[in-house]
Design a protein that fits this description.
mainly beta, 11 strands, globular, single chain, three-stranded antiparallel beta sheet, 1 helix
Length: 143
C-alpha cells in the first residue's frame, strides 16, 4: 500500500516502522510547546497525508505520553478519513495538559495505524440475543 506524505517541516524524522516492535507508526511534534496545567492545545504533527480510497487512519497517544508529558488526548482517539487529504489538512493531536510541560520538536507523542473501512452492517432488532450473559460491564478480572 502506498500513502502520500507531505512534510511541513524538515525538523522531524521521516515516518518509519520501528523495527520488530510494532506495526503502529510514531508521529512527532513539529514545533516546541510550553503548556501550563489546564491548557488545551492542538499539537502540530508536521505532516499531511493522502490515504487510499476505502481506508482511514486511527491516531492514539503513545503508552508513555501521559507518564512523560502529563497529556491526555482530548478526543481519546483521532480518526482521519481519506477526505482529509489536502496540503493544508495537517495532522494535529488535541491535548489537555494535566501539569506544566515542555514538549520539544521531534518528540514522539502519538502513533497511528491504517485500517480498511468497516463493511456495511445491517442492524437486526430483536427482543433477546439468545446467549447467556457474561456478567455485565466490568465483570472480567473478578476472582
Amino acid at each position: 500500500m502506498e500513502i502520500k506524505i507531505k512534510y511541513h517541516t524538515d525538523k522531524i524524522e521521516k515516518l518509519r516502522y520501528i523495527d520488530g516492535k510494532s506495526d503502529w507508526i510514531d508521529l512527532r511534534v513539529a514545533k516546541d510547546y510550553d503548556l501550563k496545567k489546564g491548557d488545551f492545545a492542538l499539537i502540530d504533527l508536521g505532516i499531511s497525508v493522502k490515504l487510499p480510497e476505502g481506508y482511514e487512519m486511527i491516531t492514539a497517544p503513545r503508552s508513555s505520553t501521559f507518564k512523560n508529558y502529563g497529556l491526555l488526548q482530548s478526543n481519546s482517539i483521532g480518526v482521519v478519513d481519506e477526505s482529509y487529504c489536502g496540503d493544508d489538512d495537517i495532522l494535529m493531536m488535541p491535548v489537555y495538559a494535566t501539569r506544566d510541560v515542555h514538549i520539544s520538536v521531534n518528540d514522539r507523542i502519538c502513533q497511528f495505524r491504517i485500517f480498511r473501512h468497516q463493511p456495511a452492517i445491517e442492524f437486526v432488532e430483536c427482543d433477546h440475543l439468545s446467549d447467556e450473559s457474561r456478567g455485565g460491564f466490568g465483570s472480567t478480572g473478578r476472582a
